[in-house]
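Q: My labmate handed me this sequence with no annotations at all. I'd like to see what the chain might look like in three dimensions before we decide whether it's worth expressing. Could you predict it?
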Amino acid sequence: MALKQLIPNGLTLLNASLGGLAIILLLRFQDVETACLCILGAAIADFFDGFAARMLNVAGPLGKQLDSLADAISFGVFPALLGVFTLENLGVDSWVMYTPLIILPASVYRLANFNIDTRQTHGFIGMPTPAVTLLWVGIAMTIYSLDFQFNWLPIGIVVAAIASAYLLNANIPMLSMKIVGGKISRSQAILIAISLATFAIVYLLARNPWAPVPFILLLYPIISVITRTKHA
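A: Here is what I predict for the chain of 232 residues:
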């Protein structure tokens, strides 16, 4: 393996390692916050492994397969378990508690399909697994840090799990934050601007850094459809 290939592949393996650590922290120590921080690190590594591969011109089939395998751990297994853990801590003790597990097969199917789908070179069809995972991180950490105990909350989480499984493989065009040619596209700039504005507004209202995350991720498919249609 060429030295240049070690950089992106190393970042991909870091993604997998942080995902595995997050799962251990969640299941063994019930440390939601540290687990979610590990997943944020995995998402950063996932973004930069592809960026590094393109910059160093070493993108290849091995890196593509490694990326999907790592993503299956960090953005497939983890969000499914996080959803179950969240419902359990809200007092749900029936089979409904396991509804978020549908995120796992939906994520694995999406990752396999992504590897052979030539339409997703510069954008996405369906919501990418890191985005769905960050949605669940935002939901779980908002509940955890603000200590929400609303009666309707478990129903909302079950609905979110079903919606997540659907969005992962929906035939909906989604923006990618991949930087191609060293330039940010107009659609990407719009997405960034709206995300920053949403973060600022929700943060000022809730005084919590996690609360804006679910709103931003829920707006992501809407903004993607509008901007990709308008600027197509």
